[in-house]
Amino acid sequence: MLKMMTGSLPTSTSLFLRPFTTSLSGKNLGVSISSVMANSGEPKESFGFLINKPYNPPSWALHLHPIPSQIFSLAHLPTPIHRWNLPNLPKSIDLWIKRDDLSGMQLSGNKVRKLEFLMAEAISHGADCIITIGGIQSNHCRATAVAAKYLNLDCYLILRTSKILVDKDPGLTGNLLVERLVGAHVELVSKEEYSKFGSQALTNLLKERLISQGRKPYVIPVGGSNSLGTWGYIEGIREIEEQLHIAPSMAFEDIVVACGSGGTLAGLSLGSWLSKMKAKVHGFSVCDDPDYFYNYVQDLLDGMHAGVSSRDIVDIQDSKGLGYAMNTTEELEFVKEVAAATGVVLDPVYRCAP
Q: Catalytic positions, please?
């Protein structure tokens, strides 16, 4: 939203990762893009989509290090900005919304901006498959599975679920349907195991297993939130600046965003601070607490040699309520009210509790 004015691991992955087949009715339903093969040079017809091209950063970000060398065009950009007349909005507030939910169908949302940089690096490293991890209905995992298939890469997903459901087939609901349609390899881990071992250890163990099978995996962290992925929303700030050129008298004073893994927040806050925009960025954490995210964002900034404190450039507030992807009746009623009044359907996973 834009507002104006480690413990030790077992040696066998079978102790905590539960693989499930990705074929439906005995048929492989993965997407095939014959005109674009990531490992076989430039396509005959690009039309500006699915192209790996050199990356040129904004002038105000040239001092950051390292600067990505390549970017893969995966998103439909620029995404529009329009006025958002929320119900009961105070008259003193002029509220606008940037529609990153329109960045592409299966790839929609903030994840695809990060994947443009992460997938480019995966290709440059000669990867033949992608590993990532998240919740059972992770939007990031869905977007990664689709992006990988677009680029002729296999995708391995480690999905966190409850202890009761971890040994059952995860089904075909929500994002799982898309992931399994495009042929992603799904493995389940319980929330307790996830908390005990951590996402990095779990993905590394799967990486070692795939390497032992002769594969060349590339690991993407939770939410695509590392220093490289942060460039996705540095680019997002440049895009907003370019959009504001058509209305030079307009300026955004605040940028408000939900925070689930920290990468989007880091990119927006650093980009706004470095650019002429200078809007204050506010993050509402839907999991973990503000101190965790201040420290995580700081690690991302340090990884880019930004030379700035996260606490100086972003305001983070606790908004997890019952917890990640857990909703109260009042929150779901608010989602319904906003959709009915404005046509914008909010994601209940990243809703912000009052």
A: 138
